[in-house]
Amino acid sequence: MIRISIFVLLSVFCVVAQAATDIISQQALLCNQMSARPHVIVDVRSATEFEAGHLKGAINIPFDLISQHQSLLDTLKPETLVVYCRSGRRAAIFEQALAEQAFRLLHLRGDFRDWQAAQLPVITSNPVKTEQ
């Protein structure tokens, strides 16, 4: 009985561990954005938050509007997506939904809050938005 319980616990742990998204640091993302094939940056905050400030080149797909943006997401499937929100909660929800569709995902370490705290570049005008 104990062996079965341990097996079940290990199985659950392995499933949860596989669902976790890899992390990309702020510096690694900055370097990547200067490469020949940069990752696609996805801001999953609300449109209002996005317009107030976002990472350069980011597209806005609010985490609660995934289904409305599925056709755009389908075109991005060959790409690696770097996902962020303000603090990580909404990005985790978004990442879980896309991981189920076999997207290649990276999560920005510290999200937007740490990006701002590090005084890294933030765009506040001419936002790149998806159709709503």
UniProtKB/TrEMBL annotation:
Pfam families per UniProt: Rhodanese (PF00581)
Domain Rhodanese residue range list: 35-124
First and last residue of the signal peptide: 1-19
CDD domains named in the record: RHOD
Keywords noted in UniProt: Signal
SMART domains associated with the record: RHOD
Domain of life: Bacteria
InterPro entries listed in its UniProt record: GlpE_sulfurtransferase, Rhodanese-like_dom, Rhodanese-like_dom_sf
SUPFAM superfamilies: Rhodanese/Cell cycle control phosphatase
Protein's recorded name: Rhodanese domain-containing protein
